[in-house]
Amino acid sequence: xxxxxxxxxxxxxxxxxxxxxxxxxxxxxxxxxxxxxxxxxxxxxxxxxxxxxxxxxxxxxxxxxxxxxxxxxxxxxxxxxxxxxxxxxxxxxxxxxxxxxxxxxxxxxxxxxxxxxxxxxxxxxxxxxxxxxxxxxxxxxxxxxxxxxxxxxxxxxxxxxxxxxxxxxxxxxxxxxxxxxxxxxxxxxxxxxxxxxx
Length: 198
Hints:
CATH architecture: 2-Layer Sandwich
Strand content: 15-25%
Organism: Phaeocystidibacter marisrubri
Helix content: 25-40%
Protein name: DUF429 domain-containing protein
Distance between the termini: 18 Å
């Protein structure tokens, strides 16, 4: 795969919890935002520098179809994809959802394909819950090793670069992007209001 892909764990704007995982030239790298730095601006600058073909982001990128008058979609709180995956409502996430939708629009203006993903689903698929996923920091090493084993052995990644659960979730988002590009991704929801791709 010669494309450049981003997986983003999208956090609060200035909290230093946003992490970008980057697949380029057969290797995976991580960029993390420092505390106090504008995460949205950081992502846009990274996209301008690396020019990814596709960005997968762990944040709602649309509102329920009710707000767009989609026939048969009458829920004010949840999209079909949210219900299928038992995900949080984009309405509940409020400001984070608004930031993510704005970021999607700006990235698309740069001619970058942007998709929504939900790392928790891949974490479940790889049975990370039973390995202590997000339980405590001591389990991070076990979970990151499990994901490294799941990657194509020709992909280079230094596990020690995965320093937090935010790094791990960005890797899961990136793995969803890889699934999408290889045609093996699972797609949830109704295209009229927004899909979640894993």
